[in-house]
From TrEMBL:
This is Ribbon-helix-helix protein CopG domain-containing protein. Transmembrane segments: none annotated. NCBIfam families: PRK11675.1. One of its GO terms (biological process) is regulation of DNA-templated transcription. CDD domains: RHH_CopG_NikR-like (cd21631). Residues 1-20 have a biased composition (Basic and acidic residues). InterPro entries: CopG, Ribbon_hlx_hlx. Residues 51-88 form the Ribbon-helix-helix protein CopG domain. Residues 1-33 are annotated as: Disordered.
Length: 93
């Protein structure tokens, strides 16, 4: 039987894997855990109707957005979405 790294039902296969440092509480490697967590995050976002948009901005604009978002007690993402929607309403009118 081949050993599958994501197989959690047979922890005895992982019993002889000893690594120095902190005790391991999850049989999966950190890379596999991150991959699974990211997949779950994308599923949650999809259910909430969110889509990913990447944007590159200079640091001055990002700093200004951070401070404005902090003043308004919201996330930077929420602030950017609010600003874009407001601009779209102005251009549609």
């Amino acid at each position: 039987m081949a050993k599958e790294q994501t197989d959690r039902t047979t922890p005895d296969l992982f019993a002889d894997e000893r690594r120095p440092g902190r005790p391991k509480t999850n049989p999966l490697t950190r890379d596999e855990q991150l991959r699974i967590n990211k997949r779950n995050q994308l599923k949650r976002d999809k259910v909430r109707g969110l889509r990913r948009v990447e944007l590159k901005m200079n640091h001055e604009a990002v700093d200004a957005l951070n401070s404005l978002a902090e003043q308004r007690n919201m996330s930077r993402s929420e602030l950017i979405e609010e600003m874009i929607l407001a601009q779209l309403q102005v251009t549609d009118a």
